[in-house]
Design goal:
By secondary structure, this protein is an alpha+beta fold. The chain has helices at about 10-60, 115-125, 215-220, and strands at about 80-85, 85-90, 130-135, 155-160, 160-165, 170, 180-185, 190, 200-205. The strands form two sheets. Strands 2-1-3-4-7-8 form a six-stranded antiparallel sheet. About 35% of the residues are buried.
């Protein structure tokens, strides 16, 4: 009768298998992370296109005008949908009849300003600012109030809001590596970005809560 031999892993063989598994996982992780980042970038671009369509519908009903930010700040750029209370302004006006879901103003690639958070703040936290994940140009940097004015051709007017305050608060969409920009014909372009303020598409605000940093340079850089 033959002796049966039980198959056993030696300690060296077991360590070898674990090492191979760890190496494979290390090689796979960047691809998974990159895929997740691309998905968030695509979702933000999709939200921008929806906002762009809302702006077109708004302009058709309002003498071809884009939504005005607020009296006294017509030539500013802001990422705010509503001031404390019920003071709807800028792109927040699009929700009232032109876009049914406030979450479209959020971006899953912007920490703290994701779709569900923006939607929740819009619905519940009426006593504080409702921030958007996107910066709205308004009349800043020579953008004309009539959406399809020939002077607006090839000009971006909404983009991912990337901002650093002097107090260290950061709005960091896509880790400052990339930015989505919406143009008047409703197409979205993805551009390389930098965390350095005013180098590409990141701005700097002087203090926490400031809604009108100087954005002229980044908008001019965005124009094609």
């Amino acid at each position: 009768m033959k002796n049966s031999r039980r198959c056993k892993f030696t300690v060296i063989e077991l360590l070898t298998v674990i090492a191979v598994f760890c190496i494979a996982l290390t090689m796979l992780l960047p691809a998974v992370t990159s895929g997740t980042q691309r998905a968030k970038l695509t979702a933000c671009a999709g939200n921008l296109r929806n906002i762009g369509q809302g702006v077109i519908f708004y302009s058709c009903d309002n003498s071809d005008l884009i939504p005005n930010i607020m009296p006294g700040l017509e030539n500013a750029s802001i990422p705010v949908l509503r001031l404390p209370g019920n003071n709807v302004l800028a792109l927040g006006r699009l929700i009232n009849g032109y876009l049914p879901y406030a979450g479209v103003f959020g971006c899953p690639g912007s920490p703290g300003y994701e779709e569900q958070i923006v939607a929740q703040n819009w619905q519940q936290n009426v006593m504080q600012m409702t921030w958007s994940a996107f910066l709205y140009r308004g009349g800043c940097a020579d953008f004309q109030p009539e959406l399809f004015d020939p002077a607006n051709h090839n000009k971006a007017y909404i983009m991912d809001f990337a901002c650093i305050t002097n107090q260290g608060q950061q709005f960091a969409p896509h880790d400052y590596r990339q930015s989505n920009l919406l143009y008047t014909d409703c197409h979205v372009e993805n551009r390389r970005n930098s965390a350095e303020p005013f180098k590409l598409y990141t701005v700097q605000a002087a203090r926490h809560g400031e809604i009108t940093p100087d954005c002229s340079a980044i908008w001019q850089r965005a124009d094609r």
